Amino acid sequence: MCKASHHKLQGKEASVDLRKLKGDWKDFFRIGVGKMRMIVKIDFDNKKVFVDRIDFRGDVYN
Q1: C-beta separation of 2 from 10 below 8 A
Q2: What pTM, to 2 d.p., does this model score?
Q3: Among 14, 16, 36, 59, which residue has the fewest nearby CB atoms (within 10 Å)?
Q4: What is the mean pLDDT of residues 5-27?
């Protein structure tokens, strides 16, 4: 995940999967890179991303 995130910050193409979540997580987005998942809340007005948690895909929602 670090390598893909680093490439994304440098403006390089990276394989990143961004999806809006549902249910209890309806105000959050999930960013997936490989087996890792990052749960974030995005403030589009102020152009800020708040990271809630980072973990492997099977454990991130617990």
Answers
A1: no
A2: 0.70
A3: 59
A4: 77
